[in-house]
Amino acid sequence: MAKLILKNVFKRYENKDKKKKKAVNPLAVNNFSLETEDGEFIGILGPSGCGKTTSLRMIAGLEDITDGEIYIGDMKVNDVDPKDRGIGLAFEDYALYPPLSVYDNIAFNLKAKNVSADDIKKEIDRIAPMLKVEELLEMRPAKLSGGQKQRVNLARAIIRKPKLLLLDEPMSHLDGKMRQVLRIELQRLHKEIKCTTIIVTHDQLEAMSLADRIAIMKDGELQQFGTPLEVYDNPVNEFVAGFIGEPPMNINTVKVEKTDKGTFFKFVDADIAIPVPDRYLPVVSEGMKVRLGVRPTDLMIGDENSKGSDAKISVFENLGEERKISFRVGTEFLTLVTPDEKRYKQGDPVKLEVKADKTHLFDVETGEVIRAK
Ligand SMILES: Nc1ncnc2c1ncn2[C@@H]1O[C@H](COP(=O)(O)OP(=O)(O)OP(=O)(O)O)[C@@H](O)[C@H]1O
């Protein structure tokens, strides 16, 4: 295992279409810096086109770097051939060789390095149980399910005892249940081989459940790098806040209003007012507009003595284990999720309460978090 370090890495793809004067997003990766610990499991997470795969391909050496430095352990790898970087790769398309058996697919790279047949067998005997492919070794890839193919793919990636394991959406072709199974097995595998691992995914659940730390990207730029809890509890900007969490965080524009009853966040597009938590009083001022973020699980319906805001229910959905209650805010909804079994109907008046210590504030212009004093 080895640390991975990215120092101010840039990737600019040449815009080959001369007719187009300007590329839509010429910088695929923009000043990306990141340093892992030895043996850490890192998730690179972000929406489609944010530069995740490009970053992974640069780490692997499959793509040139426009600027910056990449280190694997002590070795600067900018100009090192992919096969000499000590990496194992498993991409979303399994790329197994159809005419070869599973055994020969896993053995392929070792054979190419002239490892003896005995040593290859020893390695495959070691790896096959870890990935539960012992029974598949004589089969051809065409006979395997998607999940089995991905296990073989992973076996092939780790057989060379890589210092760094790079996984690009390894579960994206699998159905929900299979993804869950493979996710748990990846966790176990990582504990067993203790290899620094980078997984690229657009699935936040995958990143949150697997990774020690997550790098969240948008438009080629790193937004935040932290543990799953840090990015969930302390998002640095509105993008991260809205991207992490399901259902997503409610984020609405509110205006600070002072009344004789106290200071409130008054929703701009709805008749809802929420008391400004004390910790925010030093950083807001009368009339100021901010973006208020509240997770659906941090909103509650109060009882008859509640001092919460008056609100009328727009939609009530029973989701089995929990209830989803929505309040109209302009053209959008403020959503609350609760395990409380009480039923409501459209138009019911309720008192809406907020867990004050769980609110987030973002700058209307920049989207950056406004921290409480
Ligand atoms: N070979 C290429 N030539 C030109 N532009 C490219 C090339 N590969 C990627 N890009 C552009 O670089 C940006 C980042 O792409 P990348 O594939 O890294 O994103 P991603 O986050 O992995 O997306 P996805 O989740 O859809 O795979 C995109 O704007 C994409 O169009």
From TrEMBL:
The keyword ATP-binding applies. Signal peptide: none annotated. Residues 4-244 form the ABC transporter domain. It comes from the Bacteria. SMART domains: AAA. InterPro entries: AAA+_ATPase, ABC_transporter-like_ATP-bd, ABC_transporter-like_CS, ABC_transpr_MalK/UgpC-like, Mo/tungstate-bd_C_term_dom, NA-bd_OB-fold, P-loop_NTPase, Transp-assoc_OB_typ2. One of its GO terms (cellular component) is ATP-binding cassette (ABC) transporter complex, substrate-binding subunit-containing. Keywords: ATP-binding, Nucleotide-binding, Transport. GO terms for molecular function: ABC-type transporter activity; ATP binding; ATP hydrolysis activity. This is ABC transporter ATP-binding protein.
